[in-house]
Amino acid sequence: MTAPPPGAPRRRLVALAAAGLALALALGLGAAWALLGGLRAPLRLEVGRVYDYRLSYRGEEGVALAAALGATATGREAPLRARYAFDGTLRLAALEARQGGALVAASFPEVRDLSLELLGQRALPPDGALQAQLVGPEAALLLGPDGAVRDLRFQPGAPPLFRQLLLAVLSQGRLDLRVGAARWEAVERGQRGELEAAWRARRGLGEDVVVKELRRYRSLHAVPRPLDGLRQELRGRLTAILSTGGELRRLTASERLALRGPDGAPLVEAAADLTLELRRVGPLPSPGPPAAQA
Questions:
Q1: In this predicted structure, what is the pLDDT of residue 123?
Q2: Residue 98: how many CB atoms within 10 A of its CB?
Q3: Short-list 105, 199, 210, 89, CA closest to 153
Q4: Burial call 9-37: b when 16+ CB within 10 Å, e when fewer
Q5: For 284, which DSSP code?
Q6: Per-residue pLDDT tens digits for 118-169
């Protein structure tokens, strides 16, 4: 058996190491390239399709009477509190393309759980009446390609509970998508007030991810006075996962807010958690036959 020439094992090790380094660099560059750039497509709802999202929304709101009246808090006044929780289905039916976006019918076809407490007391009608207020009504949304609600119309006589729940979900899950951008800032107006937010987007393998960080509130509807001089503690994030074609697959949003007076007395305390997860995409049901004339 012939012995290998001197230095051959070392040359083989060097060759293997070089090949491994080249492979690692190729994989690394490929992964980095996949993450370069911003969103690849605007929000897309295909006309004639129905999108059913599993919806979970819960939170707590507390407002001190002094804050609501625009007065200065004294002592340690306990905020007036409300707690709420909803589990069900949000349905978005894309009716037609309009203004670069889509005209959408929004509804809650299923309610699995709903609770609302005001000052520690249940504040909802019996289950039968509750179903009637939420299951059945629809609202018309004009969704822009950036995901923002450009117009919202409720049916005449839409129940207040349906209106408030839909407005809360749309506000907490507000989108501001910008194709091609990796980072941007925005001032948003929602159900709680005017808010400064920072956005970032990245490309993944087969999906795009958008993240919003809540920075601070410029104003709050519950506090009819400037927020200067008040202590604001805000933590919040929204994460949206979209297909490379712009279909919203999952959205989560979490917010924690505490606003205190100069002496530390609580003025506003709020917490909210929202989850939307796409469960089904199907054809838009055809309208039924006209009712027979008597």
A1: 65
A2: 15
A3: 105
A4: eeeeeeeeeeeeeeeeeeeeeeeeeeeee
A5: P
A6: 766 776 666 667 778 899 999 999 999 999 999 999 999 999 989 999 999 9
